What does this fold into?
Amino acid sequence: MLFLILSILCSVTVGVIFKISRKYNANPSQIISFNYIAAIALCYFTFSPNLQELDHNAPLEIYTSVGILLPILFLFLALSIKYMGIAKTDAAQRLSLFIPILAAWLLFNEGFNTYKVIGVLVGFAALLFILKKPSDNAENKWIYPAAVLLGFGIIDILFKKIALYTVVPYTTSLFFVFLIAFAGSILIVLYKLFIAKENFVLKSIPFGILVGVFNFGNILFYLKAHKAFAENPSTVFAGMNMGVIILGTLIGAFFFKEKLSKINILGLFLALIAVVFIFLSQLK
It folds into this structure.
């Protein structure tokens, strides 16, 4: 349970840093690149991973898929915030919960008892109510939050598959994924600098390092939580997403003065109920 709570805290902190960085006009793609520099350094000096441990049976195609998807997904996240607002983007990200939960049933052969079914149904209603957050942006570019929803759902599934491969230490797997993600992010930055003619923004460096520290913690504790709940991956899927929704919405309300409608408050209440049912399902 501790690993899940720490992952939630790190995830929300990453979102807060991105929100603050927009006020300083930091460049999202540059933040993403420096984020991976920090994450790679932390992973290396904390765990001393050895890439020689990657044998021919290692899921290299999964590592590559996650490494490519991560920086691209971060960019879609930034575009979704720009065109659809932070509130709707956060809701779309957490709505991705139901992709891995369905995968837990269809791909990982996890049994669903009555408590888990109720938790999923209540959680779905909660997310829909939170999606009703007001937005000042009238543009309707749903392709961006839709990409965020689908992308985070797929990455959740792929990280579960990485956690299940126990021959290679997951810290080595994580380090390799970060290396691939960094390479992809560099290509994006170079394109934006030399083709799209964007300027390099020095303010992106400290924001990127901060994002990297908490991004590293988020993924690390998320994988540890999956190992702790190896027989019930939907417990981690649900607990992580609901926890981030609740904490993120509260921080938005109290620190960023985001308004909560009655529908939002009902959604938070339903999310709490959903979390209770999901964890009750773990005990049955």
Remarks:
- The mean pLDDT is 82.
